[in-house]
Each structure stands twice: as structure tokens, then as C-alpha cells.
Amino acid sequence: MKKILAFSLLLALPFMGVAQRHELNKALLLKDVQVLSADSMQGRQSGSAGNKLAQEYILQRFRQVGLKPFGEDYRQFFRIGGKRLVVERAVNLVGYIPGKSEKAIVVTAHYDHVGQRDGHIYNGADDNASGVGALLAAAGYFAQHKPKHTLIFAALDGEELGLQGASAFLGNPPVPLQNILLNVNLDMLSINDKGELYASGAYHNPQLKPYLEQVKPLPQAKLVLGHDLPDQGHDDWTSQSDHYPFYKRGIPFVYFGVEDHPHYHKPTDDYVQVNKAFYPDAAALVLDFIRIIDANADKLRDRK
């Protein structure tokens, strides 16, 4: 039944944009996560049939939203080589909304997960169907509210295999690297019972802090700055997701995510665990930050 549900949603999903300014379409946001974390996606491991099915769904959503491809194809192919897994044809999915400026903000969220192990499907609803859902919601908003800066939306492959998709994106960027003002990375946004969404990166990029502080709390979610101090050990998230290759290239970043929870990298990370009250507000906080920073991004490299 789950396979039937996933395919029916994939084939028959209607286009729905953002209802009003600052408001996301909650039903569509949750539907995106539900589809991407269905059993039919087989845990979305890079190179798998389930990963390819996730690609097809995201590509359909890119077209529905109205994202433009660079060239004729949204797909960026690259090779993943490593001890754990070799994938000859991994795929990043990249689209954009042109702004008045050629300077760009890159919004990233990885769509791969860890696949199947010992007979269990690791569906990765929070990690990271939730980030992809928020990325698609933000793309839908800015397709209707044209940005000041060019916004690039990249659904990345190979994060679970060593941030490979982000490295491939930067190795063959669709715009010159000097034109990238900021990376906004979304990874695990949907499971938190305290109503806390963390924004990591202000320690390394203090020029971003005033804009993060402009993001107002919502009834079910508030923004908390942190998890970016070098002396925090594992609690320093600087190197723990796709923003890290941007950071190594000297590109400012903000990483939005929740703290670890019992379902992290477990087969219980299913859609049923998603906090249906918190997650839409968390995605709206991300959207609000992108809106604020888009209006001010040209100042980023001027501030100390």
C-alpha cells in the first residue's frame, strides 16, 4: 500500500504554491516529506533504484515550482568513490530563480539517505526529506515573489557518503564561485519537541548574526543560534553536513537543523515521527531568513 501511495502521489501531485507572503503551504510541505520517506524510496541510498525514484519526484517538483535549469538539464552527474560504496553516476539536482543581481545565494538540502540494512528500510524522514521539503517550499515562495539575488536550489546526493554532492557542486559550479555570497544548508528540520530550530554558522560568519536575529519566533518554533564553536567537539556542527565544503572554500554559511534525537540514522526515522506542528513553522523560519538575507546579501562581505 505504501508503494501505491507513493506512486500515486508522484504521478498525480497537483501544483500548489505559497498561499500568502510568509506562509507556506503546510499540506504540500508535509506531502513532499511523506512521499520522499515512503518505503518505495528504499531509503534513497546513492546509486539505488529508490534514490532514482526520489530524483524523479524532486525533478517533477522543480518543474512544477518553475525553477530554471542551468542549460538543458537540472541534473549534475558525478562519481562517488570510496570504501563504503562506489557510485558511477550520482546525481545532484540544481535549479534557480534569477534575481536582479548575478550574485547568488545557494540553498542546499541532501536527498540521499542510508538505504536498507539488515532487512530494515531507513526512510530518513527527518534526515533529510524534511530539508528537501523546506527547500521546495522556499523555491515555491520565491517563484512567486521574485528575489533580489539569484537563488540556486540544489538537492544534493552523496551527503551520507562524505558530503560528496556538495563537493561536486563546488567543483563544477553553475556560476563562478566568487558570485556565491552565501550557502543556506537545510538538514533535519522536523523532529524537535522543544520547538527549537538551530542556526549554526554565526560564530564563523558574525556578519550574519544581525540578520538571523531578525527572524521572529513562530507559535511552534523559534530560532536558536549555536552549535558552531570549535571547542564543542561533536556539538560543533561546522563539518557535519553539506555546508562544510562551502566553508572550506571561504563561502559564508548558515546551517539550519535540529539536535540529534533517538530516530537519527535509525529505521524509526519515518514520516509518522515528524512533528506536524513544529516542522511547518521551522520551515517558515528558514524562509523568513532567506527573505531577510536576500534583501541584504550584498552587504555581507562589507561587514566585519
UniProtKB/TrEMBL annotation:
Transmembrane segments: none annotated. Keywords: Signal. Residues 1-19 form the signal peptide. Residues 92-289 form the Peptidase M28 domain. This is M20/M25/M40 family metallo-hydrolase. It comes from Pontibacter saemangeumensis. The lineage of its organism: Bacteria, Pseudomonadati, Bacteroidota, Cytophagia, Cytophagales.
